[in-house]
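Possible regression after last week's pipeline update?

I re-ran a chain I had predicted before the update to compare outputs. Posting the input and the new output here so someone can diff against the archived version. Not blocking, just want to make sure nothing changed silently.
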Amino acid sequence: MVPFAGWDMPVQYAGIVVEHRAVRRAAGVFDVGHMGQLRLRGERSERVLDRLVTNDVKALPEGRALYTCACSERGTILDDLIVYRRSRQDWVVVCNASNVDKMSAHFASAAAGECTFEDESPTRSLVALQGPRAFEILALVGSDGQRAAELKSFHFRNGTLAGIACTIARTGYTGEDGVELFCGRDEGLTLWRALLDAGRPHGCQPIGLGARDTLRLEARLSLYGNDIDETTDPLEAGLGWVVKFDKGEFIGREALLRARERPPTRRLVGFEMTGRGIARHGYALRDAEGRTVGVCTSGSPAPTVGKNIGLGYLEAALAVPGTQFLVDCRGKNVEAVVVKTPFYSREAPRG
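New output (post-update):
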């Protein structure tokens, strides 16, 4: 157990590799109740939210979710978010645990005099069930679980699982199929136990922070505070697809338009270690002459891929698949190469 954004969180239960493989081969249950949940309601809530984020929430139907960023006026990333449209005038926004206070204040300020805002984080829980057997297990905890497989990706609906009223969303952070389940804070533990009890005979295990990180890294999903933060913008981070310039005004739009007009100086890339070493957050990236040309933002052994992998910002001219460079692993320069990402997709053979 370790401190994490004001919570005590498990790094591992049975071991990072064991848990990682359980999710890839069967299923895993994640306690993600530390994530923030922000609620906006009212006639002008759509307008408020659309100005706060880079993606186009106006085009989002009820019962659908989308991934987006919230930016500063400088165009840098305050947080990456998932927006859920419950109805025409009712929205839930999930933010990162480390940013709850910041994003709550940011949203509250924008909503003042426009719509109702509530930080529901203290009263809500979130449990994720991820993996190729997730829906098989979900079907064992209620009739709404049996129907959950009918949901399309980034769709959600209300239901009852193990006698608990919850929202079932086909979203996740692992590169696998599965769901995230929203319920009241007091019901989270009951739901967690019900999923584990139903899933254990099918290979389901509880998953800690360690495997959560290796799973998302293999899927090339950014981690706030590592790969993106208030010094990075969505364009250089490979998130330009969530920036909809044509939707109208939003915070950071002018800065991002200027950034789009000039060549980027760096880009976030995926890489594999070809020499013997593991890249870690903060390690310098160097060219053949030893010049520092970037920084590693995430790095780890990848159990499914069978290689040591990483993400990092490289000078734009070097951010091309096949480019070789060096990672300064505690004073030793170790060979690496830029590769296409994601490192893993569930359509490929499993390790």
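Follow-up from reviewer: compared with the archived run. The mean pLDDT is 97. Marking as no regression found.
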